[in-house]
Amino acid sequence: MSQAVKLSEELVTSAKIHGAAQKRSIPRQIEYWALIGRIAEENPDLPPDFALNTRLAKAEAEAGDVEEYTFG
Questions:
Q1: How do the pLDDT tens digits run along the chain, 72 residues long?
Q2: Which helix or strand (DSSP H or E) is residue 5 part of?
Q3: Would residue 69 count as lying in a domain?
Q4: Is residue 2 part of a domain?
Q5: Count of domains forming the chain
Q6: Residue 32 covered by a domain
Q7: Residue 37 near residue 22 (C-beta atoms within 8 A)
Q8: Euclidean distance between CA atoms 25 and 12, whole angstroms
Q9: pLDDT at site 18
């Protein structure tokens, strides 16, 4: 479900710049930032990068992009 919201021009401009660098649209960039914020709030003891990389690893595993790791 989409819904129109009012955002500051500064936020939209920043999202446009950052989104262009990551090949994301303005709405997708803002959604990404919201995701990072939600992850940070839900996991205050973890660095945001750790939480994001964990999500990436889970997505890779679900896509079958895994290989066995041998310790030692």
A1: 789 999 999 999 999 999 999 999 999 999 999 988 998 899 899 988 898 898 889 999 999 998 888 998
A2: none
A3: no
A4: no
A5: 1
A6: yes
A7: no
A8: 11
A9: 96
Instruction: Answer yes or no: is 68 within a domain.
Output: no
Q: What separation, in Å, do the N-terminal and C-terminal C-alpha atoms of the chain show? A: 49
Q: Which long-range contacts (CB under 8 A, 24 or more apart) does 9-16 make?
A: none
- Among positive and negative, which fits the CA dihedral 45, 51, 57, 63? positive
Which pair of structure tokens corresponds to residue 56?
Answer: 């990436």
Q: In the structure encoding, which two tokens stand for residue 41, read together?
A: 């709030």
What domain range includes position 54?
A: 9-62
The answer to whether 43 and 57 are in contact (CB under 8 A) is: no
d(Cα 25, Cα 15) in Å, to the nearest integer? 8
